[in-house]
Design goal:
The chain is mainly β. The chain is 0% helix and 49% strand. The chain has no helices and 11 strands. The strands form 2 sheets. Strands 2, 4, 5, 6, 9, 10 and 11 form a 7-stranded mixed β-sheet that branches. A hairpin with a 5-residue loop joins strand 5 and strand 6. The radius of gyration is 13 Å and the shape is globular. The protein starts with a strand and ends with a strand. The mean pLDDT is 96.
């Protein structure tokens, strides 16, 4: 299982970024996929999930601002982030759930992360 993120960067508050994640090594089109983030000195948190029995879910802090989507023809996952806030600053990770589930953990697939920095 391999997932590789891209698209991070630095923006001012109110700006937008789109993260991409290219997946390989597993059956992507039926996999439950997700975006997570980790800010300095904080625990990793779930941002958005798509697929499986969970459908599409967002953490409350990003609802209405972020959109998760996938292109199964390109094995690619996206996270469109609008109206960014300084508190969105974190390293963002793409993840593939453990096969056959919508549970994310060490036995799933994790990317190396991409940094998103939002300045006020």
């Amino acid at each position: 299982v391999q997932v590789v993120e891209s698209g991070g960067g630095s923006v001012q508050a109110g700006g937008s970024l789109r993260l991409s994640c290219t997946a390989s090594g597993f059956t992507y089109n039926t996999a439950c996929m997700g975006w997570f983030r980790q800010a300095p000195e904080k625990e990793r948190e779930e941002v958005a999930i798509i697929g499986g029995i969970r459908g599409t879910q967002y953490t409350e802090a990003v609802k209405g601002r972020f959109t998760i989507s996938r292109d199964n023809t390109k094995n690619t996952l996206y996270l469109q982030m609008n109206s960014l806030k300084p508190e969105d600053t974190a390293t963002y990770y793409c993840a593939a759930a453990i096969r056959g589930t919508c549970t994310f953990g060490p036995k799933g697939g994790w990317g190396q992360g991409t940094q998103v920095t939002v300045s006020s």
